[in-house]
Amino acid sequence: MGTEFIEEIESTEAKLLAAINGLTEEQSKFKVSPVVWSIHECIEHIVVVEVGVYRLLCKENSESASRFAEHDEMVGKLKIAAKQADRSVKRQAPDSVKPMGRFSNLDELIAKFHDNRKRICDGLRNNEFVFDNQLFIHPIVGELTKKDWLNFMIHHPERHRA
After folding, report:
1. Within 13 Å, how many C-alpha atoms sit on residue 92's CB side?
2. Backbone torsions φ then ψ of 34, nearest 5 degrees
3. pLDDT 10s digits, 37-53
4. What is the residue-averaged pLDDT of the chain?
5. Residue whose C-alpha is closest to residue 3's, from 113, 133, 127
6. What is the b/e burial string over 66-75, where b = at least 16 CB atoms within 10 angstroms of the residue's CB?
7. Taking CA 12 as the corner, what is the angle to CA 7 and CA 15, rounded to the nearest 5 degrees?
8. pTM greater than 0.70
9. CA nearest 6: which of 107, 126, 111, 162?
């Protein structure tokens, strides 16, 4: 079931890692201004969001779920990709996913990023996730199915890479 997701997850991982390949710690932590995130902070944010996506994928249908989508993808891959690509709109990340120095160095961040994506791909390969169209709230996009969240995760690093 998740092969289309696996290919895109691996592709966007490779793009992000290629973009930061060869950076020193100093370069990764450089900030052009106090209000702009460094590369290190952007990757920390991506990692924290993606660990949250993994947790969400592991959730089973709960009886207390308030809503379910009528279709597999409520928002859809193309709309999510377009929203992530639009850099004309700056967004504020929720406090829970803002960088806070959770990782001491770039190697640790890269390892966590890779390990979490591998864990998601393995879960997709082994059909460990239940895609039941339950809706989960994204603070900016709104209600998303698990498939929508996967598409968000796939395209989210591209926004920061740009």
Report:
1. 3
2. -65, -25
3. 999 999 999 999 999 99
4. 84
5. 127
6. eeebeeebbb
7. 125
8. yes
9. 126
